[in-house]
Amino acid sequence: MANALGDAGAYVSNEDRRRAAALDGAAKERQRQSLNLQRENILSQRTSNPARRQALEAALAHVEAQISAIG
């Protein structure tokens, strides 16, 4: 039951659209979980070395920016 035009004039069913959206959502969720694990790992590290602390802060800011970009 094709009812919509997709790329290059090919017909795409609503079921195909739902399946693609579900796959995209699952990929984003896996990426979000991975980034949250990285964030937890960074937060769990302790150091008295100022350079290491600065690197951890930068890494944390980077990971949090990626999480925000995902939505």
3D architecture notes:
This protein is mainly α and 71 residues long. It has one domain. The chain contains 2 helices and 2 strands, in the order ββαα. A two-stranded antiparallel sheet has the order 1-2. Strand 1 (2-5) and strand 2 form a beta hairpin. The longest helix is centred in the middle third of the chain and has 31 residues, at 14-44. The protein is rod-shaped, with a radius of gyration of 20 Å.
Mean pLDDT over the full residue set: 87
Rg, nearest Å: 20 Å
Instruction: Count every beta strand, where a strand is a DSSP E run of 2 or more residues.
Output: 2
Strand line-up across the major sheet: 1-2
Note the total helix count. 2
**What's the order of the H and E elements?**
EEHH
What are the segments in which pLDDT stays under 50 over at least 5 consecutive residues? none
Please state the structural category: mainly alpha
End-to-end CA span: 33 Å
User: Into which percentage range does the β-strand content fall?
Assistant: 5-15%
Total count of domains: 1
How would a textbook summarize the main sheet? Answer: 2 strands, antiparallel
Name the overall outline.
rod-shaped
Helix content: over 70%
Distinctive features:
71 residues, mainly alpha, two-stranded antiparallel sheet, 2 helices, 73% helix, rod-shaped
Task: Walk me through the topology.
Blueprint: E1 2-5, E2 11-13, H1 14-44, H2 50-70
Offer a quick outline of the entry.
By secondary structure, this protein is mostly helical. The protein is built from 2 helices and 2 strands.
